[in-house]
Structure formats: structure tokens, C-alpha cells
Structure prediction request, 204 residues.
Amino acid sequence: MLLLAWDTATDVATSALVWDGEVLAEASSRPLTLLEDVDALLRRGGVRRSQVEALVLGTGPGSFTGIRMGLAAGRALALALGLPAAGVSTLDALAAGAPGALPVIDARRREVFTLVDGAPAAVAPAGVRLVPGTVCVGDGALRYRAVLEDLGGVIPPDDADFHVPHARHHVALASDFGAAELIEPVYLRVPDAERSRRAAADVP
Prediction:
């Protein structure tokens, strides 16, 4: 099965073209170049859009704008080509790239997105619960390296590949393919724009 996958939840957007478990092409860049990356993947893989059989989309948590951009592009392409799609948590994909590690994504606002009792959550870096010696991966682990190391975490070097949620891992985790519009994003928090609107509404 020929699958096209991408994730735009973090500052590094990843995409991959995978056929029956074999990675034909993959890319890492910025979320704004996603569609260019997809076109390049198809060319490098030697396939046409019409040959793609399904999409796999990263659902976050991460950047609100990035998640929306990736899901909107997925829904548009799925509609245009009549493709089914599956959503995969960015945290799960990050963890799949480093089995046994704790995924930690920079959530801004002095928080990180991570797994708490197996469920995604937004917490302060000092509130991350981990067993001493646990490997932590992701851009949040890099930003708060000192805090996590004080908690007993082990952070791979900054240039380690483990810190990027590669789209090839999304493909390995994908299941329950269906209509792309039914894929739910994982935001965990109210967007900044909504917070501002609510705050303005409370002003007398």
C-alpha cells in the first residue's frame, strides 16, 4: 500500500512516502513548505498523486497553526483524490523513533507536551514525571535539557535524530483509515487568539 504521511506540529515539518513498509522518500523542512515537500517526495519516489492510496496525518499536540495547516492540507488532498486518511499523535510518533523514551514537545508558555500516565498533557517542565535514567526526546527535551536532567532524565545530543517526529514512524502506527475530515487534532490548550478574545470579553 502506497502511503503519504506528514506532520507539521513542531518547528520541523516531516513528510514521507512509504510503500508496503519501504520508505521511498522523506523530507524535513518548515511547515510552510509542506506542499512543496510533498511534490518533491512524489517526484523522488517516481509516483503520481493518483497512485497514492491513503494519507497519514500528524495530529499534534504542538503548534496550533502548524497542526491546522497540516490537517487542512490533508483534508484538501484527500477530498481531491478520494483518499482515506488516518491520524497519528505526534507524541506517539516521536516515541516510536526512540523506543522506551519519553516524548517531550516544546509547548511554549513555559510548558511542554508529554505523556502523563500514557495520555497527552501540557505540564511545566519541572512537573514532568519520569523515572531517573529515562531518555527524553523532542524539541521540548532540548529546550528544557537542564530541568529534565535535574529530574534524572537523559537527553541525547542536540543533533540526534530522535528529537524529530519523522513521518515514517506515523506510517508504522497508522490504523483506522477513514474520512480525513473526521480526524481530530490534539491541541490540549486553548489557542492564543481565543485566550485573547476571552480576556478582552472579560474587560468591563
The mean pLDDT is 94. Residues 64-81 form the longest helix (18 residues).
